[in-house]
Amino acid sequence: MLTKRIIPCLDCDLQVPSGRVVKGVEFKEIKYAGNPVDLATYYYEEGADEIVILDITASYERRATMTDVIHRLTENVFIPICVGGGIRKVNDYIKMLNAGADKCSINTAAIKNPKLIMEASEVVGSQAVVVGIDVKRRYVDSPEKAPNKNVIMTNEGYCWFECSIYGGREFTGVDAINWACKCQDLGAGEILLTSMDGDGTKNGYDLDLTKAINDAVDIPVIASGGVGKPKDILDAFKVSDVSATLAASIFHFNEYSISEVKNYLKNNNVPVRL
């Protein structure tokens, strides 16, 4: 049985030259959380399975990803690193992989140019092509009110899931379940799925969303957005059977350690690497 992965997420910007890690709530209310190189090294030593580094303003600011930060970070971190933000073409993949990253996550560029997924997977391999999908719930009175969307029934009512781009600043009308399937068909090797409604709230992952996406595709899905305690991570694995969970606040602000989370999961019969 494959072990489930625990992945700290470093949302970064370049408000300072060395980069800074920040954390928000529902993609807003940003506050400082630390230095990316220091935090990545700490999480590596703590037993993280991978680390995701998202340059959250690169696409919006139309600039390149923070290559220098990746160079410095990967000098001391020897687990898979996924980098996202500002990746627009195949050469950006090559540049990030040469800087030490193992994977690149694309969101805005993928929706604007879906062929990039296929082109990148042909050049660097599908294992290095991660598609980030940032999702917002859209409630409707009935499935007929949202034609061509995958409407599901939740405890809160009927809803479909809309994809956003530019760090949640713009909505696309694209159905997340349909888009995840298309990404898989184009050659993506993994989906990084973030609930904008859950982001930073600590109310738990959107299990309706994660299960719907995970059931629709055969490639690994990483759940993100909303974790507040180890049980939220357990629920994501037990209910939606995702391959990995992403967490930020609970690790950045010392609420739980990675070892605490992994031991909790092991005690609840979830296979993890200790």
Describe this structure in words.
With 274 residues, the chain is of the alpha/beta class. It has a single domain (5-131, 163-267), classed as Aldolase class I (TIM Barrel, Alpha-Beta Barrel), CATH 3.20.20. The protein contains ten helices and 13 strands. The chain has an eight-stranded parallel beta barrel with strand order 1-4-5-6-7-11-12-13, surrounded by seven helices. The two termini are 15 Å apart. The model has no long low-confidence stretch (mean pLDDT 91).
Can you summarize this structure?
The chain is of the alpha/beta class and 274 residues long. The protein has one domain: Alpha-Beta Barrel (TIM Barrel), CATH 3.20.20.70. The chain contains ten helices and 13 strands.
Broad shape: globular
**Relative strand content:** 25-35%
Structural class: alpha/beta
Which architecture name does CATH use? Alpha-Beta Barrel
- List low-confidence stretches: none
What top-tier CATH class fits best? Alpha Beta
Taking the sheet with the most strands, its summary is: 8 strands, parallel, barrel
Full CATH superfamily name: Aldolase class I
Placed side by side, the strands forming the largest sheet appear as 1-4-5-6-7-11-12-13
Oligomer: single chain
Radius of gyration using CA atoms only = 17 Å
How far apart are the termini?
Answer: 15 Å
Mean pLDDT: 91
CATH fold-type name: TIM Barrel
For the secondary structure, the number of strands is 13
